[in-house]
Structure prediction request, 270 residues.
Amino acid sequence: MAKHNKKRNTAFIYEALVREVIRQTIKKDTPQRNKAIKILKESFGKNSEAKKELELYKVLLHTRGLDEKTAEKVVSETIRQYKNLNHQQIFAEQSAIISTINKEFSKGVFNNFVPNYKNLATISQIFNDSLNPKNKVLLENKIVATLTSSKSNVESEKPSSNLITQTFVKRFNDTYNHFLGEQKELLSKYIFSFEDDGAEFNFYLSEEIGRLKEVLQQSQTLSEIKEDVNLQEKITKVISILNETATKSLTRETLIDILKIQDLTRELQS
Prediction:
């Protein structure tokens, strides 16, 4: 079976960059973190061929719970759509990303731990026409088995040493140990939002804004707040900020506002 070249696996490059964002965030190196985010946004924009390829990887990587017949059709259709991509353009875009990573960071980015690496390698190989028929069918069957499973196998793929994971988590917690639990969760989901184009984070943010508004509105019924006109006005203004946040794109400033509001609501609750 042909050796898998991870630097020519678009999904692996994407995942490695996501991990670099996390790594630089933990190190508190904002300039380097922003560089990694910039590369992600520029390289996987809506019109890039790499983005189209990445979406096909995600279909096979994240889909679960299908019946066998449907899973086989999904694999077949995904391969068909992959063949219709502009592979010369993909190669050029990959080369540009690799060059930028080597220039702005180092080759070490490609050594970042990617938990779903084995699945990404398998998907890459079923996209490969040079694979012999027997191996191709065996790998496709492996993907079908994954698509028909009830949950992701990513959790079973862990770093070779538990110490690595423990150290990672400890450094993350040490960095944010002065934050409230809900603030840590907000920041964590924001950092990881690059993995699914922000879908999970946006859902969480919507829920959290709703929770914060409810706490603030309930606080307005408290006698001590009712009697303080100035405080009433401030709370009304904060609710207005949350309403605006729910209807526009999230910025760094907006994220900071929400962290402050989380602080305020915790005080009101106590």
